[in-house]
Amino acid sequence: MNRLWYPIGSLLVVAGLFHLGLLAVSGGPWDGPVGWRKPFTFGLSFGLSVLTLAWVTSLVRLRGRTWLMGAFTAASVVEVSLITLQAWRGVPSHFNMETPLDALIARTLAAGGGVLIVSVVVMTVAAFRRHAEAAPAMLLAVRAGFVTLLLAMAFGGVMIARGLVEVMSGDPRTAYLLAGSLKPAHAVLMHGILLLPALAWLVADLSVVRLAVWIYAALSAVVSGLALAGITIVGPSTASVLAAGAVSGLGIGALALAKVRARVRA
Predict the structure, then answer these.
(1) Residue 235: phi, psi to the nearest 5?
(2) Angle, in degrees to the nearest 10, between helices 172-181 and 136-168
(3) Burial of 233 (C-beta count, 10 Å sphere; 0-12/13-18/19+)
(4) Calpha distance 29→14 (Å, rounded)
(5) Which of 40, 152, 154, 217 could form a Cys-Cys staple with 20, CB 3.0–4.6 A?
(6) Maximum distance among all Cα pairs of the chain, rounded to whole angstroms
(7) Does residue 265 carry a pLDDT above 60?
């Protein structure tokens, strides 16, 4: 059963990259609630998250791992599928209450976000249990990674809550603006769970991993502070993609180097 998470995560990544191709060919809008950017970023981000958690949760003593990974993966598939459906329909996915179908999709996306948050909370608690068999560098990386992921989920929850309040009050435009302002913080925190354990796997040096955790924490604090203060250097959508892309790219690169290193040693 656990082997299913890897092909599912890979399919989500492929779906995201496919919509990046559509965006490049069609030349559609990058910012805004309608366009190919959303299925691209959500497919890539959720796909990487499923792949990462499938690996990282095997490193911690996690009861009910299959059920938790199943819930997280199922919610990720639902989120990406509905966002992609709305993109193909040419309408916004989140905070869209224009028709009964749109309202159902928006509420389902919000409920899916709740499932993701609960799953990550349980995984984070499990990561802080005693693990005598875990290497100190990896244990620190996994715990710090789960904390950043939990903070990313918290920002996501705030984005959804603030947006829904504005939509219910009849102001969908403000809903998108308020939710969008927190995108950079949500994005930069999302993939610490990939970058930090990948680095620990590569170097296996506690001092190096500890330094990386502090650097990542400082970067996240700056980006989050700017987002909460409403200070925008570039567009929120661009900032979120750059942040998530940089962190994900570093994490994937570290994993690739670790695999090469392991083969050379073998």
Answers:
(1) -55, 145
(2) 160
(3) exposed
(4) 21
(5) 40
(6) 62
(7) no
Contacts of 252 (CB under 8 A, 6+ apart): 48, 194, 198
Q: Is 193 within 8 Å of 145 (Cβ atoms)?
A: yes
Instruction: Give the three-class secondary structure for 156.
Output: helix
| Chain Cα centroid distance, residue 204 | 25
Residue in the block written with tokens 């930069």: 188
- The CA distance from 170 to 21, in Å, is 35
Q: Which amino acid is at 244?
A: A
Q: Where are the domains of the chain?
A: 2-265
Distance (Å, rounded) from C-alpha 54 to C-alpha 265? 25
Percent of the chain exceeding pLDDT 90 equals 32
With H, G, I as helix, E, B as strand and everything else as coil, classify residue 34. Answer: coil
* Residues 23-76: tens digit of each pLDDT: 888 877 777 677 888 899 899 989 999 999 998 988 877 778 888 999 999 999
Give the whole-angstrom CA distance, residue 228 versus residue 210: 26
CB-CB contact of 5 with 73 (8 Å): yes
- Confidence at residue 66, expressed as pLDDT on a 0 to 100 scale: 87
Closest residue by Cα to residue 240 from 173, 167, 187:
187
How many residues are recorded in the chain? 266
- pLDDT, residue 226, reads 84
Query: Which tens digit of pLDDT belongs to each residue from 194-248?
Result: 889 988 888 888 888 899 899 889 988 988 888 888 776 655 555 555 555 555 5
Q: Name the phi and psi angles at 131, rounded to 5.
A: -135, 85
pTM: 0.83
